[in-house]
Specification:
heterodimer; A: mainly alpha; two-stranded antiparallel ribbon; 2 strands; B: mainly alpha; two-stranded antiparallel sheet; 75% helix; globular
Chain lengths: 290, 363
Amino acid sequence: MTSSLFTQALISGILIGGVYALIGIGLTIIFGVMRVINFAHGELMMIGMYMTFFLFTLFGIDPFVSIVITIPLMFIFGAILQKVFINRIIGSLPQNQILLTIGLGLVMSNFMMLAFTSDYKILTTSYSSSSFKLGEISVSQPLAVSFIITTIITAFLYWFLMKTDTGQAIRATAQDREAAQLMGINVKWMSILAFGIGSSLAGTAGALIAPTYYIFPQVGSAFTLKAFVITVLGGMGSIIGATLGGVIIGIVESVGAVTISSDWKDVLVFTIFLLVLLIKPSGLMGKSRM
Amino acid sequence: MKKTPTYLMKQQGGARIGLLAALGALFILYAFPSFVTSPYVLHMMILLFLSTIMGESWNIIGGYTGQYSVGHSAYFGAGAYGTLILLQSKGVPPWYGFIAGIVVALVLSLIIGSICFRLRGPYFVLASIAVAEIVRLTVLNIPSITNGAEGILLSDLPPFKLGETVITDFISKVPFYYIGLTLAVITILATWWIQNSKLGYYFQAIREDQDAAHSLGINLPVYKNIALAMSAVLTSLAGSFYAIYIKFIDPTTVLPLDLSVQIVLIAIIGGIGTIWGPVVGSLVLVPLSEALRSNLIAQGLINSGLVSENSGVGVFLKEHLAHAHVLIYGILVVVVILFMPDGVIGFVKKMTTRKKIERQGRP
């Protein structure tokens, strides 16, 4: 294998890793604040993809512009999900939480299937397959743009969580729910906020990969699994970890597809996942530091 | 004078009635094919048995030992593939080939157990999913052995010899009915035994409190592995049975994540950690999904006059409800978890004890 091919795979791995990071960060915020593992995370992303698709085909709104609409809509959707369903099972048995979110995911994907059939939809923009040269390496234009957007969103999220009062309240809730409550933080509101942010991040990720990916109702479950791998790799509850995990998984997939074979790249990802669970279950960035 | 506490008397009487009812039901089920010959009804019964076997098997590790495996499709697939690959490549009749499935499932469960049981709670769930996905992808990617995505189609079955009787007619559903019934009874008996044996008490102690069980001298990894192995072996039997009954397997039917979830649901909806939970779960889920698939519900709504056939709603229901059975599954899960986390059996129990308390006043 030539080194340029390797660099090529590395670059596209990092670019797609940005989107993975968004999915992972959403999952990790939800887990951090509520200790609930959201098995419907990929489905939230799938809904984001469909939103983007219809905004584009019906109103002609560019996918990258449409996130301005997708983000608030997904936030409201996530907040409602939290208020109606998730809120009732906070602190109950982990298996019940898992099954509830699996159930919600099934409802979402099958509802979409009933509404829009399970046909693959393709969102074709003028720049879907265009790329630009960076020396020897060609870079996919939509992926590059989405990477820039993810970087901006992630930076904004850091700022929000680190510097604003609400962000600090969310982090406090993640560190110790009861102590946060005693300090006068409205933890219920923080939970709603966290789930809203988590699902709007998943929706954004869906919007960003919509121009380069097939859109169909069952697309979510693969991404749900990927999101777990990313968050566990980075350390459950750690945002920096999820960012790192997303990029690493992106690189592993892309380089693995080139060096081994694209059929086995998912096996590679899951094997790494198992190894992390065995060797360092707390992940790269340790425990619940947001 | 010493009085036997009333709750004990009740329980003994209840157990005896329960045993009689079970024996009666078994007798009726045994004689069933002599009265009913409709292949469709027999097919439904076989699906019911299959679902019961899967639910009861999962119940051993999930319900009694409290380790929520969401990767049981791996063992189901091991049984199905083990049996059919041996039949296709070596001509081994499935009546012996299922042993290969058992061995594969056993080895798999020991590997999975030794990896996953070092983890707890949600981490265990995630690890079990990951392993099942690795198994599915591996089967998909080694077509020289497994035929890859095309799957394996079974053309004809070798005759089944049991002592003097030789069965060659496999177009009829009757032989499968009896195989299914036998397997279901075996798994129910196994569950009953587990509930009442020392081994089962170990399992239940692990479920209730791992650390307490550990401090009482129960070797956690060993007993968790035993529970998983038992569960895996029985699940692989279900897989073998499915393979020879349906006669076609591929990675998307016998190894997907959906199947693992479905197996868990059977037990959850009925009531986990109970002997009859998976049976009740099957009685709810199998007819429901079948009714949806064959459009009985849409037709029923139209026939009953609730929805007019030519209205938009009627047309929509007729066209789409058949595809909606997974949607209904999802809704069921959400409802069960939120409103009856102990399943149908737990819910009924709660209702009856509440009534009893109301009738008798507070104890």
